[in-house]
Specification:
Radius of gyration: 33 Å
Mean pLDDT: 76
Structural class: alpha+beta
Number of strands: 8
Helix content: 40-55%
Distance between the termini: 132 Å
Order of helices and strands: HEHHHEHEEEHEEEHHHHH
Number of helices: 11
């Protein structure tokens, strides 16, 4: 018997005494659902490899009670078993959406506001928070499924400004992002976004398989969510910092083109110092805040998570992209040094001319005094 068929059979046997289910919904997930409990459960998208037909049958039973005919009941269980076993080799598609929305998020205040949804950490890393949102029917409470990922949506929020959403539909994105925006500073005028896909395939022989813009896992748990969210969060943050450095590179390219034509440039000393500060802050944020080269404690602890982490970093070319960014920063640094020397030479030339003018004035005054004294002596 398939996993979901056995689960549904157990649900039926434990629910005959209470045909009208009640719902236990975590506080923040209440806003995602309508006021009608039956509509709530039918709207919720399962986070598992269960086929949609089985889920629809389960929702139908919860809404309207069970069939009175035992013959129909047995036939339904048998057909569900056949469908489940047929779908064992198929992978459930779990959409993942990555956003970079600000330059900083206050994780402490966000945890305090969403205490009922915080997933306890499994490592000492403190630059992110994992939130879980679910609506589990009360008939399932006590059956060991209350914390199962099949009914959950997840959001992993990072201190440097990334938010990764798991199993969230497009029309629900703004609700989840607003949770992070309330505690964010330095909100971007244009938010950056990336999409990915996780496929859960229980019958997979290996722990994971890679594909084009997706990864196939035997089982997706909260540590897997943290690893995937970490790499996607770093990748989309790296995109933002690369775009910032690209702006500086283009600005220096315009200056160089102007110098090629006119032999001089008009940048002020203050503007140059601003560019120096921007370049230094970008590289510091990438290394310190984003933690691009920090080893994940979860990946260090278990080999399967290390495999996922290495695959995703290779898939998103994190190391190569940082190498390209480093080349651009070196170009910016070289131009900054050159322009600093030019401005310093201009300053030195100005001081030299001031000294020459002062010496000339002194000589003129001395010459005037000599002439005056000579004229007075002759009289």
């Amino acid at each position: 018997m398939g996993r979901w068929a056995a689960y549904r059979l157990l649900l039926r046997l434990t629910s005959f005494s209470a045909p009208s289910p009640s719902y236990s919904i975590r506080p923040l997930s209440l806003f995602l659902l309508s006021s009608d409990p039956t509509t709530q459960f039918r709207r919720f998208r399962p986070f598992s490899s269960a086929p949609s037909s089985s889920y629809a049958a389960l929702a139908h039973d919860l809404d309207y009670g069970f069939r009175d005919s035992s013959h129909n009941y047995v036939n339904e269980v048998q057909s569900c078993t056949d469908v489940d076993e047929q779908q064992q080799e198929e992978a459930a598609k779990i959409p993942v959406k990555a956003f970079f929305l600000s330059t900083s998020i206050d994780l402490r205040s966000m945890q305090a506001e969403n205490a009922g949804n915080v997933v306890p950490p499994t490592s000492r890393t403190s630059n992110y928070v994992t939130l879980r949102f679910c609506n589990t029917p009360s008939a399932m409470i006590g059956m060991g499924v209350g914390n199962s990922v099949i009914f959950n949506r997840y959001m992993v929020v990072f201190q440097y400004g990334s938010a990764i959403l798991f199993n969230v539909e497009d029309h629900e994105v703004d609700f989840f992002l607003n949770i992070a925006r309330r505690h964010a500073s330095g909100l971007l005028s244009e938010m950056r976004k990336d999409d990915y896909m996780v496929k859960e395939k229980p019958g997979l022989a290996e722990d994971m398989q890679g594909g084009a813009d997706f990864i196939v896992l035997k089982h997706l748990d909260t540590d897997g969510i943290r690893i995937i969210g970490s790499v996607l969060g770093q990748s989309i943050a790296l995109d933002y910092f690369v775009s910032q450095v690209d702006v500086m590179v283009e600005e220096f390219a315009d200056i160089n083109r102007g110098m090629e034509k006119t032999g001089t440039f008009t940048m002020t000393r203050m503007k140059l110092f601003q560019l120096v500060g921007k370049a230094n802050s970008n590289i510091a944020d990438i290394i310190l805040k984003v933690g691009l080269f920090d080893r994940s404690e979860i990946a260090w602890r278990e080999a399967k998570y290390a495999q996922i982490n290495e695959y995703l970093r290779e898939e998103y070319e994190v190391t190569q992209r940082f190498g390209n960014l480093d080349i651009k920063l070196k170009f910016v640094e070289h131009n900054i040094h050159f322009l600093q020397e030019v401005l310093q030479n201009r300053r030195s030339d100005l001081l030299e001319w001031c000294i020459i003018i002062l010496l000339s004035i002194e000589n003129v005054i001395g010459l005037y005094e000599i002439i005056r004294d000579s004229a007075a002596g002759s009289v």
